[in-house]
Amino acid sequence: MQLSVVIVNYNVKLLLEQCLQSVLLASKNISTEIFVVDNASADGSEAYFNNKFDGVKFRWSKENLGFSKANNSVLPETKGDYILFLNPDTIVPEDCFEKCMHFLHAHPECGGLGVKMMNAKGVYLKESKRGIPGPMASFAKMSGLIRVFPQSKIFAAYYAGHLSENETHEIEVLSGAFMMVSRKALEKVKGFDEDYFMYAEDIDLSLRIRASGFKNYYLPSTSIIHLKGESTPKHTAFYTRHFYGAMKIFVRKYYAKQPVVKSVMLFAISCSKLLADIKRKC
């Protein structure tokens, strides 16, 4: 079995360096190819990685393609039975790839796999497993009900709070920080939807994997460190524009046949963006 690792970099050369070091260690017993797509970083990434990591295939874009297009741009070059989409602000343990590939091989119905994610302090990250961000799940998250009922199947659906973080589960939505996808599933869904510049593309891909007949799973027997927010700082105009823009694309795509629900969700997203912009400027 072969693994293809695809990492999209944007202005985080030092984080990418430690990510690649961990990836190489985790690949020592596996046939692995590693691709890095740089989205026109302005931090000197290209010069920094010159003559470093000879086994890594760097692709230097002259423009910021966004997350979806950057990942898709190298998919035709990949040869792995499994493709891992990995954030540059992550660190994987040495047993990670072997455990994930073993699970995928043993469960041919599994199209996409995610793992337990921890922050730099060792605290579990709830986005390791998620549910569909439908009207109720989104309302519970924005209203704070998810914090009041963190294990409710209804009010904590956004993070699948009713499912134990320490047990393997079938889940609806994977995190884009670590998504290992079988080639068979990826060929069916044809990669990421490039309408999404960044954000929500992982939700969209997860749903299309399920719609194609495969399942998504959460595997807690291995965990990674995700330095959340380091690659794309929040509370910036760039973040709010693309995050809320992606949410609108998602709603228009998946709730087109429910005009009332679509209108209410789009209104809520617009209000949330307005509040975020006001908070950012204060």
General description of the model:
By secondary structure, the chain is α/β, with parallel strands linked by helices. It has 3 domains: 2-129 and 165-230, Alpha-Beta Complex (Spore Coat Polysaccharide Biosynthesis Protein SpsA, Chain A); 131-162, no CATH class; 233-282. The chain contains 10 helices and 9 strands. It has helices at 13-26, 45-48, 66-74, 96-106, 135-143, 145-148, 183-189, 201-211, 237-254, 259-281, and strands at 2-9, 31-39, 56-61, 82-86, 90-91, 110-118, 169-171, 178-182, 215-226. Strands 1, 2, 3, 4, 5, 6, 7, 8 and 9 form a 9-stranded mixed sheet that branches. Strand 2, helix 2 (45-48) and strand 3 form a beta-alpha-beta unit. Helix 9 (237-254) packs antiparallel against helix 10 (259-281). The model has no long low-confidence stretch (mean pLDDT 92).
Q: What labels describe this entry?
A:
282 residues, alpha/beta, Spore Coat Polysaccharide Biosynthesis Protein SpsA, Chain A, 9-stranded mixed β-sheet, 10 helices, 9 strands, 39% helix, 21% strand, globular
